[in-house]
Amino acid sequence: MPKAAKKSAASTAETDAPKAHQFQAEVAKLLHLMVHSVYSDRDVFLRELISNAADALDKLRYEAIATPELLAGDPELKITITPDKDNKTLTIADNGIGMSEQELVENLGTIAKSGTQAFVENAKRAKGEVHLIGQFGIGFYSGFIVAESVDVISRRAGSGTAFKWSSDGSGSFTVEPVEDAPRGTSIVLHLKDDAAEFLEDWKIESVVRAYSDHIAHPIML
After folding, report:
1. 194 and 120 in contact (C-beta within 8 Å)?
2. Where do the domains of the chain lie, and which CATH numbers do they carry?
3. Of 19, 128, 154, 221, whose CB neighbour count within 10 A is largest?
4. What is the pTM of this model?
């Protein structure tokens, strides 16, 4: 019996170990552009991540029409922004639809080739003008404008299992199971030293007022 228990523990550890994935080539190009470009208006990343969070809330609200139990235990849909000066992190969280392990890999590791190629070419021509980011629907990657690394913790509505996606914006990312995560998605930005202003409440509030006043869901700070 002890041998069987040992084997079982080993296979569990193997299953729970972070799985490494390579970014699709087009995403790697895009991330290189984000990490190394100098944007005159870096506020755009927050607008994009809030917009993505609002989309996740809308998707859950739509799915909950047919499956109301998806809202169980947390029916008030909202976006929460949490700056942490001690750890130099900014977290944008929603209690929306969330993502499964496969969705994290597919949604954050690949992107439609034509859209990415068009973005990369246009951004080079326009020298990184920020309006292009939203136009091509790749707002998540804009987080790397201000972050050294990004963690995404997500639990899909109706699932008991959560996963963490992590990357420093180089050629790869990892995905691993995590415990005790609420429904929805939390994007944790480990900020670069020159992005410390985004840990200040006044800065976050000014960006939210300027770009995200149209969002139908409450944004908590």
Report:
1. no
2. 18-220 (3.30.565.10)
3. 154
4. 0.82
